[in-house]
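Troubleshooting entry. Yesterday's outputs looked truncated, so today I'm pasting the complete records for two proteins to confirm everything comes through intact. If either block looks cut off, that's the bug. Protein one:
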Amino acid sequence: MLVLTLSLLALTPASALETISLDPARQFQTIESFGTSGCWWSQYAGLWDMPFEDSGMSVRDQIAVWLFDREQGIGLTGYRFNLGAGSADSRKGTYQDEYRRTRNFEVAPGEYDFGRDPGATWFLERAAELGVREVVLFCNSPLERLTISGTAQMTKGSKKTNIRPENYGPWAQYCLDVAEHFLSLGIPVRYLSPINEPQWDWLEGNQEGCHFEPKQAADVYLAFLNELERRPALASVELSGPEGGEWGGNTGKYVDALLKNARLSRHMSAIDCHSYWSSTKDKESFASWMQRRYPGRALRMSEWCEMVNGPDVGMSSALELARTLSEDLSILNVVSWSSWVAVAPGDYHDGLMYASEDADGQVSLTALKRLWAFGNYARYIRPGYVKIDTQGPKDLCAVSFLGEEDGKQKLIVVLVNQKLSSQDVTLSGIPAAMHADFLSETSADMDLLETPLSGAQRDFTLPPRSVITLVFSD
């Protein structure tokens, strides 16, 4: 691994330093995964087997390595695979962006062709090969043949929900047939999420989607649970959701609809929601509401990107990703966190990489600062690590985790300096047996690059507009 040497902080009077205080005795959630979604890009990027520059890899393999390999990439351990409704097969509906159409594997009820979406399934299998431990199969819409409109979108003037209750069962059968198939291939399917952002209307527009009222959402989950409980091969698979679009609004009504049902409450170990349109106050309010109403129930943040038009290859959106991630870890105590699309065309603050294919089939691929800033968390905070109490200035977004790896106790501290100037910090509360191993920096000039530290060091300089990970071991 490439190592650079940074100039470290000279001895500075304590009064000039910002203090970050750690308390390893106060422990919170245990991390399950950091991940991303294969939606809207893997179906075509998975076919890019042409060489990528002089890397010795194909374009698709370079994408997979940057996402899932821990040495050359950021080491994600979660992957969300979209079970499409079939709009790419039928060509029905209105889509300004054709890449947002998806395929399904059904050729007739109960009959499947699992080779129909080779790009998407290539990425799914490669993710598992590179170490992904947790795959979530998720739907944006039911299968088109089961919808009222006959498409994967609501039509104007149609009923609020695009599927009749008698079709919940056949929909569940399809999804669980696919889950059984992937599990038989060794894909670590851990969760199945049947609905997505059910509070929105999803009228004809730019993607597959389906609205559900809270009680309808609960009925869908019960139909899926009925089918799941009939399948011993899926004993390790759990339903997840309700995938509310925000930590506020009427998301709580959907959570209530699920968890007030005794069967669903016993089955679902956590609640999954998205961090769109959510302020710090929204998250604090939701966390407090969950603690009062459903104490001890874990939260997972399953989808987020910065909702800003235009490209950004620099640190601005990377810092926003890091700020949001730290906030979700600290306020909501999420046990997993997933970005939205991993690869995007470059006209929005969404992907971890930008990629485009020209008329001659040549692909341009760029790893963004968002990717490496995400890596400041995902590469070092591994499944099983436990968050500990960390106090410091709010603008540094400090989070810390304890874990064990290779027979050693590890302490990981992630700090975000959003300022245009450098920031001097000192860490207190670190156990005396812990020595500083290295720091990893993502900034304007660095992409998750590691620098050795002196063992007793507790004072550091955070470069301007940077995300820094400090790694200690016993």
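Protein two, checking that the full record survives here as well:
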Amino acid sequence: MKKKTLVILAGLFFLLIFSTSALSAEFWASKNSTTYHYPTCRIAKKIKAENLVKFQTPAEAKKAGYQPCKICKPPLPQ
């Protein structure tokens, strides 16, 4: 019984963490490029502060003329 409860709680914790990160998603782009990235992408980490453009959704990035990065593969607008 305790093991089942622990598994359920672990699942709920994972769901909470996953949904929180999905809701607070952020995408980065450079004023000097045509791609948007996850902030953790190695390319995004090289963007200078003065060139950084942030988007809350892939749709915002697409509307601004950006395409998803082929390295970190952020989602396409839905």
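Both blocks look complete. Sanity check on protein two: Helices lie at 2-23, 58-63.
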